[in-house]
Structure formats: structure tokens, C-alpha cells
Prior knowledge:
The chain has helices at about 1-30, 425-475, and strands at about 30-35, 40, 50, 60, 65-75, 80-85, 90-95, 95-100, 105-110, 115-120, 130-135, 140-155, 165, 170-175, 175-180, 185-190, 195-205, 220, 225, 235-240, 260-270, 270, 275-280, 285-295, 300-315, 320-325, 330-340, 345-350, 355-360, 365-370, 375-385, 395-400, 405-415.
Amino acid sequence: MNYVIWSFLVILLKVTGGAxxxxxxxxxxxxxxxxxxxxSPYSAVTTAVxxxxxxxxNVTVPLGREAVLSCVINNLAEYKVGWxxxxxxxxxxxxxxxxxxxxxVSVTHDxxxxxxxxxxxxKESDQGCYMCQINTAIMKKQLGCIQVQVxxxxxxxxxxxxxTVNEGDNVTLTCTATGKPAPRIVWRREDGxxxxxxxxxxxxxxxxxxxxxxxxTKSSSSSxxxxxxxxxxxxxxxxxxxxxxxxHPHQYHQGIASTTTRERSKEVEAYHGETLRLYRxxxxxxxxxxxxxxxxxxxxxxxxxPLNVNFPPLVTSSMNVVGALLGTDVRLTCNVESHPPSIxxxxxxxxxxxxxxxxxxxKYSIDGERxxxxxxxxxxxxxxxxxxSQDKSAYICVAANSxxxxxxSIQIYETSSSSMxxxxxxxxxxxxxxxxxxxxxxxxxxxxxxxxxxxxFQSFIHYWIIIFPFxxxxxxxx
Length: 478
């Protein structure tokens, strides 16, 4: 149908153009002055034909804006101008009249020299080349193209949504986006923390290297990790040996080299690329990851991808032994790490290996506070009101989830105001030290006394050794 209409319009353009050309030539014909001053009625001046004065400039417009192609023509006279779509020869306008039924298309002109094609609210399907034609005897035409820029759009069914893995597993996050030009993908953590990535680098082992490097097999997981491979521990490297199969020392021949893939961990603020691979995931990597797609055509778009890491509970406490005064309130605190979130509760003492669960009451107050929606940390506290002697016991904070159970024990003892901050073990050590000091003092005092008696005895012996001859001499010689 378009072809029939176009043929009809072309014939119409040629007929009207030819008639106007003849009239123009006749009106242009005139007498030419000869050398003798007479006029020759049979001479005519050649009429100028239309010419394109410049090329149509290609335009690039964002989706939804207006695109304008300008066709500048000199000496149009009574010829006609038409606009067509180049790829399918669809007629859009004939001179000042819009032929297409597309309400977004219009034409304007400036003093019959500049003819503009307007396409409002540009769609992606409007991208392409358009033809400006002049209905001369030999059709003249030139092309101008429209490039439509499309803002990015994330394809949900080809991108990762919420994902849950166990601690130590590998995981791959994917984000696919469309747009013109092709969007750039950037990954960031929503909490602003850095992303731990690994950058593998391959190195070849020289012939005659350690045969043990060949004792590994390569098996790729769905996330692109390498498992069941021989590893070498270094400070910051994770080494995975890649091979085609299991090798034995006697199968290693001279001239055959093995390939070692070395993966170096690195922390980055942002990771560029559609696919984000995380290896040996830890609980610290649990966060919401933001996939941001941009191509300089506003607006940029983003998708939130929560990463959940499951692991059994871990319970810790900064206090193991607590002293309390009678009649005071005692507050005990434990810190719990777990995902999925654990069931937390307190127990008092042991009776034949049976715990006594503590419930909130006038005697006990129980509180818990989780560190944010994506945090795996919880603080749980127990307050014992009006502490009495019968409250002396071990208090145990317990956490349990689907992966396991953990607990921590805090011992409370009664103390006086003077030794409130000193636990029993410290008091015992002080008493033992005092006893050792007293024993040492007694030994020192006893040593001084014995030394003094010995000196007196030695002096007594010396005295009698000197005096005895004088006493004995008169007795012998009398």
C-alpha cells in the first residue's frame, strides 16, 4: 500500500514539478541583446536547478525528547521537498503536508530554504536514517540519521535477587542491564564497607619443579570457584593448582610444566562488571550489595541484592565472674553472633545437668538488641533485681538456631563493699601471697636468732681457751 501511495505521489510531484519547470523556463526566457543592438527572441537564459547547500547533520537525542533533522536547499523555486524513512521507504511528508498518520511527526520550513523534520517524544523504534528528496527530473536526495539514547534498565529475570549461602561457600551475583549506549555496571556495598575480591593470575612452573604441585584436580563450581585443589598458605594469597586430572610422580616427564593459579585477595570500594564473584564467604561479607547501572543517559538505576550468610551461633561475654552486693541490681551481658537469627534465652545454674530457664518477672528483666536489619550480632542482657545470697549461681546465656547451639556462663558471688571488685580467685591468691610473705619473714627472723646464738657460743669457747691455761698453771706447779 505504501508503495502504491509513494508511486502516485512521485508521479504527482514530477507532473507538477515538470509543469512548473516549463512555466519557469518560459517566464525566464527573454530577449538577448545582440552586437548591433537588436534583440533575439529565440535565445533563453538557463534556469538554475535546486542544490543541497550542506549535508544533513545527524542528531543524537535521549528517549522521549524531540529530534529535528534539517535539510537546506538552494534554488528550490517551485520544486517540492519530501521526507521518507530510509529503511522501509515510508513517506512522512510531501512539501508542507504531513502524509504519515504518526501524530508525533511534523515539518517546518524557513523561507523555502530550510526544511525541518520534527519527531516528538522519540521512541527507540524511531532510530534510523531519514531521506530528504527533491522532485527534480533526476531525483535528488540525501540522508540524515537519528540516534536514540535509552537510559539503563535492569533486567530482573536475568539478575540475582536475594541469595543465601553457608559460611565458607562461593557465590556469584549477576546484574544485567539494557540501554543505549550499553550501560556500565558497578557493585557497591550498601553499608559503605569494602568488597573483598580475588584476582587470579596464572604462573607456569618450570620443568623439574616440585611434583607435589601436580597432585590436584580442577572442579569448577557454579560460581566459578576452584575446589578440591592443593593449596599453599601464604599471607595474602590463595593458591589453587589447576590440572586436567590426577597426576602421580612417575607420570611427570621432563619438559612438562604445570600451571598454578594464584588468587590474591583485595578490598575495593566498588567492583566494575556484570558478575561479582565472592569466594569463601564469611559472615563479615553478609550485606546488601547494590548493582548500579549507568550510561550517561539519566536516570541511573540500581538494584538491591541482599546476601545472607548462614552459620551456627557464637556466644561470648566480657565477664566470667561478677561480684555483687546484697540488695543491689546486677546486670549481666552476652554478645551473640548468628544467622539465621537465633533463639536467645537465659538459664540459672545446673541441677543434675538440668538447666532452669529464666523468664521475665519482678526478679529478672531480660533485654535483647539486634544491630540492624542486616547485622548478625545481638546483645542480650539479664538484670537480677535485689540480689540476695540465694541468687549466687552460674547464669548461662544460650543461643540456638537451625545450625547449632552455643552458650556462655557467668558466675555471680557475694562480696562486701571493700572487696566488691575483687573476685574469689583474686582473694585466694592474695591470701596465699600473704601466707608466703609471713613464712619468709619467720624464716628470716629465725635465721637471725640462730646466727646470734652461734656467735655467743663461739665467743664463750674462745674465752675459755684463753683463760684455761692461767687457771691450770697454778694447779699443776703448786
